[in-house]
């Protein structure tokens, strides 16, 4: 089994005796990672240094490749991430289809005294239940339906303080502030071919990680592409062009989002994008994109 651990330090919190084929740690402090006997490799990277829409800005991390790891772990780290969505994008790419990502974090007060100033303002402002919701939203807004089986767990030990403790227990400081929570999800598989029985699902998977487009745009474009695809069911070349042109959507939307959204609302933008993708001659070259930026109709674009 191969594991990628983000926010790695001197301990990985794994069961004793577990044997991994590969365990790559990514963290800021190489000295601490070198003390961790579980790690087989280490990468020094700042998880808060990201490229918008792309992920963590680390050549070493990116060189690990896509669809590489069976498991990704993030423990005691999410509360310090300033751009968690981008970090989760990197994780989705690195994880194998069917692989699982687990994000573990302690209760809000557990690290407050020692690391409170380093926690993000958003994290400090919410309670543990809201932290679980936040962690789940980072999955959702990084790759959407590219994550499956999203779940959250309270894995607090028996010694942990509970919210229903009486005042006497709290004032006497019995129990420990060691409540622990996990949010996890599995990476879904991207469609390699468009399923003629459910083309909408296939197109949706091709757009899970498409930059520039908002979730709203993807929801509008997907059913339109599905209808166009089925319309050309007797024209394999046309269908193939639609599938291959999906990768041009970021370039198309870079132009569309600059248009007057009152005169050219979101639904019309999605219709134009679908029309362009169904044109076998459309390659999003400079001339075509310039015409699009000028607001010309799709049938006038060479």
Please write out the topology.
Elements: E1 2-6, E2 22-27, H1 30-34, E3 41-44, E4 50-51, E5 55-56, H2 59-62, E6 69-75, H3 84-94, E7 95-106, H4 112-115, H5 121-124, H6 128-143, E8 147-154, H7 167-171, E9 180-187, H8 199-206, H9 215-231, H10 236-245, H11 249-256, H12 266-277, H13 286-293
Parallel strand pairs: 1-2, 1-6, 2-3, 6-7
Antiparallel strand pairs: 4-5, 7-9, 8-9
Helix pairs in contact: 3-6, 8-9, 9-12
User: Any idea what the CATH superfamily of the largest domain is called?
Assistant: Vaccinia Virus protein VP39
Q: What overall geometry do the principal axes of the alpha carbons give?
A: elongated
The termini sit apart by 51 Å
Helix content: 25-40%
| CATH top level assignment of the largest domain | Alpha Beta
Q: Return the structural class.
A: alpha/beta
Give the count of helical stretches.
13
Biggest sheet overview: 7 strands, mixed
Beta-strand content = 15-25%
Low-confidence stretches: 166-175, 296-302
Mean pLDDT: 85
Number of strands: 9
Based on the structure, what is the oligomeric state of the protein chains?
single chain
Radius of gyration from the CA trace? 23 Å
* CATH architecture classification of the largest domain: 3-Layer(aba) Sandwich
Strand order of the largest sheet: 3-2-1-6-7-9-8
- SSE order, as H and E? EEHEEEHEHEHHHEHEHHHHHH
| Count of spatially separate domains | 2
* CATH T-level topology of the largest domain: Rossmann fold
Description:
By secondary structure, the protein is of the alpha/beta class. The chain has two domains: 2-187, Rossmann fold; 199-300, no CATH class. Helices cover 37% and strands 18% of the residues. The protein is built from 13 helices and nine strands. It has helices at residues 30-34, 59-62, 84-94, 112-115, 121-124, 128-143, 167-171, 199-206, 215-231, 236-245, 249-256, 266-277, 286-293; strands at 2-6, 22-27, 41-44, 50-51, 55-56, 69-75, 95-106, 147-154, 180-187. The strands form two sheets. The protein has a seven-stranded mixed sheet with strand order 3-2-1-6-7-9-8. A two-stranded antiparallel sheet has the order 4-5. Strand 4 (50-51) and strand 5 (55-56) form a beta hairpin. Helix 3 (84-94) crosses helix 6 (128-143), helix 8 packs across helix 9 and helix 9 (215-231) packs across helix 12 (266-277). 32% of the residues are buried.
């Amino acid at each position: 089994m191969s594991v990628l651990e983000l926010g790695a330090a001197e301990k990985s919190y794994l069961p004793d005796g577990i044997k991994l084929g590969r365990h790559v740690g990514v963290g800021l402090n190489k000295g601490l990672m070198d003390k961790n006997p579980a790690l087989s490799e280490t990468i020094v990277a700042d998880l808060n240094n990201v490229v918008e829409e792309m992920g963590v800005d680390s050549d070493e991390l990116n060189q690990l490749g896509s669809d590489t790891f069976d498991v990704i772990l993030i423990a005691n780290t999410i509360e310090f991430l300033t751009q968690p969505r981008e970090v989760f994008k990197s994780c989705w790419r690195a994880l194998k289809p069917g692989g699982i990502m687990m994000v573990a974090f302690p209760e809000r007060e557990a690290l407050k005294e020692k690391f409170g100033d380093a926690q993000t303002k958003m994290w400090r402002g919410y309670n543990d239940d809201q932290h679980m919701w936040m962690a789940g939203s980072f999955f959702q807004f990084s790759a959407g339906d590219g994550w499956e089986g999203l779940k959250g767990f309270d894995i607090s030990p028996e010694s942990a303080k509970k919210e229903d403790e009486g005042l006497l227990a709290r004032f006497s400081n019995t129990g420990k502030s060691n409540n622990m929570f996990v949010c996890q999800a599995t990476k879904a598989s991207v469609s390699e071919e468009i399923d003629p029985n459910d083309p909408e699902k296939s197109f949706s998977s091709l757009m899970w990680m498409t930059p520039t487009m908002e979730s709203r745009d993807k929801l509008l474009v997907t059913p339109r592409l599905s209808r166009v695809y089925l319309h050309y069911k007797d024209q394999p070349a046309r269908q193939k062009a639609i599938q291959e042109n999906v990768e041009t959507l970021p370039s198309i939307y870079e132009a569309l989002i600059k248009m007057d959204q009152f005169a050219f609302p979101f639904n019309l933008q999605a219709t134009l994008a679908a029309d362009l993708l169904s044109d076998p001659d459309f390659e999003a070259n400079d001339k075509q994109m310039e015409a699009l930026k000028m607001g010309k109709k799709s049938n006038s674009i060479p």
